[in-house]
Amino acid sequence: MDWPWRQNPWFETVAEAQRRARRRLPRSVYAALVAGSERGVTVDDNVAAFAELGFAPHVVGQPPKRDLAVEVLGQRLSMPVLISPTGVQAVHPEAEVAVARAAANRGVAMGLSSFASKPLEEVVAANPQTFFQVYWVGGRDAIARRLDRAKRAGVAGVIVTLDWSFAVGRDWGSPWIPEKLDLQAMVKLAPEVLARPRWLAEWLRHGQLPDLTVPNMAEPGEPAPTFFGAYGQWMQTPPPTWDDVRWLVETWEGPLLLKGVVRVDDAKRARDCGVRAISVSNHGGNNLDGTPATIRALPAVADAVGDDVEVLLDGGIRRGGDVVKALCLGAKAVLIGRAALWGLAANGQAGVENVLDLLRSGIESTLMGLGRASVKELERRDVLVPPGFTRALGADDQPSGA
Ligand SMILES: Cc1cc2nc3c(=O)[nH]c(=O)nc-3n(C[C@H](O)[C@H](O)[C@H](O)COP(=O)(O)O)c2cc1C
Predict the structure, then answer these.
(1) Long-range contacts of range 268-272, CB-CB < 8 Å, 24 or more positions apart?
(2) Where does the FMN hydroxy acid dehydrogenase domain start and stop, copy by copy (predicted)?
(3) Residue 283 falls in the annotated catalytic set
């Protein structure tokens, strides 16, 4: 029976999914998803910059049908959206498996973080269009073992994220995250968990509690390390060189996306190392604060390497119109981070499907307004770009700004 006072589980915007996530998740878990770094300039700009772009719609003569399908990294997707890898724990008991199922049901690809809570074999079983994300942790031998495991699991490709700079501290405060959920941690977290009974009930219904380990960072035959154990190893690993990027491309041999490129010179270097797909990304504003919104950096990068490299974008996507704006400015597809996490927190797998449906209908209606029959027809002149909007980072002729 449908109780009249029960909230409709369907939500109409990503903003509403975020509100529900805030009401549903314990304070620390919600804060871990908000993330961001330092002043929060970048995390805010990622979203705000999309609002600065406008559209120039037609009034009559729109095509009756619209085609959203694209091919990215050798995968056919029902729309130009992929799930971005996010290493967060404790959002939902089914976690990345629920996200992967939702993505499979909606015909989009899944990015699975090295710091995810579910083993990649389970996620690939839920969605064969899974890309495993690797960080530069432990050096070449350890990374080769992780790549080998991903290959055996049958992933569609890898996402290499190299932009992490270990920023610490947020002006609005960081949540306390325990190393493991022992008795002491449970006592400390009890007040905020008991204030969120629906979240707790969901975990109990699944007969488990968050265990805060990272199974995809396990060495063969070893138990999964804790998040902090793996993070400590990462901090001690010397940062990668461009030679290491070339080594990654040659070792992996299959589809590979380099995530975190914002500069034109880096995009060209990546191309010269054999990288054939990049995501213009600033790690969702969780990294070097003061990096401009990715949508500002995108046009210069796409102009520089777009003919040789598949250029994607992530950061700040909250609606279908944002996807279209990114496509107009040179992206082939986008990845979504928080939007999927808000959906997962709000309503599990169905919540992620809800978010993907909102993006799809938003892309559809924007295409209709713009009079375009396909995402492939979108052009730069379909969006209004205010003067001074773009940032050509690392371009020869434009040292900054302009
Ligand atoms: C809580 C959180 C955890 C993340 N963890 C990872 C990660 O493990 N690996 C990675 O490549 N990117 C990670 N990211 C970055 C996302 O993949 C993506 O770049 C970013 O979320 C895009 O911005 P958006 O959240 O505005 O869509 C994380 C982002 C968030 C918000």
Answers:
(1) 268/304, 268/305, 269/242, 270/245, 270/305, 270/309, 271/305, 271/308, 271/309
(2) 6-388
(3) yes
- The residue segments making up the domain with residue 305 are 14-384
Beta bridge partners of 55: 383
Q: Which residue reads 């040179």 in tokens?
A: 330
Structurally, how many domains does the chain consist of?
1
CATH number, domain of 196, equals 3.20.20.70
258: phi > 0 → left, psi -120 to 50 → alpha, else beta; which? Answer: beta
pTM score = 0.97
Sign of torsion, CA 298 248 43 366?
positive
Q: Is residue 117 part of a domain?
A: yes
154-186 pLDDT per residue, tens: 999 999 999 999 988 999 999 998 988 888 999
Partner residues linked to 374 by β-bridges = 67
Whether residue 333 is contained in a domain is answered as: yes
Q: How far is the CA of 254 from the centre of ligand 1 (A)?
A: 23
- Compute the distance between CA of residue 34 and CA of residue 29 in angstroms, rounded to an integer: 9
* Pair of tokens at residue 235: 């901090």
205 CA distance to ligand 1 middle (Å): 28
